[in-house]
Structure formats: structure tokens, C-alpha cells
Amino acid sequence: MLADVFETEPYTSYIQTHFDTIGLNVRGDREVVFNEEVTLIEKDLAKQLNVFATPGIIFLNPDNKVVARVDGYRAPERFQGIMEFVSSRAY
User: What's the farthest any 2 CA atoms get from each other in the chain?
Assistant: First the structure.
């Protein structure tokens, strides 16, 4: 999915225009600031968001509430529909 969507136009431009993205390693130890009060290491944040496999894509609203999730691979055309749903705030 990384090569098919995140590194391919027109999807790359769409993502950069509508989203802030953070790539996490579900087994990683980097520190991630989730919000003003919460800082976790990658694997703990993944656990908190119930992400155990990759690709696992979580869309959060400005309050860090999950509004959509994608578990597993999605073809670029299907993923575009999900991105449009989230960016239009249809949730």
C-alpha cells in the first residue's frame, strides 16, 4: 500500500492536502506525541489503537477520536473513497 497509494500520484498530493500522516512501527520504540497530555512509544500507541498488523491505517478527527480504520490492503481506488469520506467529514 505504501508504494501503491502513499508514493503514487494523484494519491500522494491528495493525502498531503487533506491529512497529516504519521508512520508507526507496531513493534517500534520511538516516542510519539499523541496529544498534549499523552506521549507513548510506537508499540504502545499501536496497542492503544488496536493495530496489530500492517497495513493498519487509522483516521483520527482533531480530537484524536477514531473516525475510520482500514485493516489490511486496499486497492488505490477503494482507498481514495475512504479518504474522501474522511476528508469530507461524512462520518
Answer: 36
What is the structure's pLDDT at 46?
93
Model-level pTM? 0.85
Sequence-ordered list of residues with C-beta below 8 angstroms from that of 76, at least 6 positions apart, any chain: 4, 5, 8, 11
Query: What pLDDT was estimated at residue 53?
Result: 84
Give the C-alpha separation, 71 to 87, whole Å.
18
Distance CA 65, CA 86 (A): 12
User: Looking at the DSSP assignment, which residues form a beta bridge with residue 60?
Assistant: 66
What is the residue type of 69?
Answer: R
Helices (H) and strands (E) in the chain, counts: 3, 4
d(CA 91, CA 71): 18
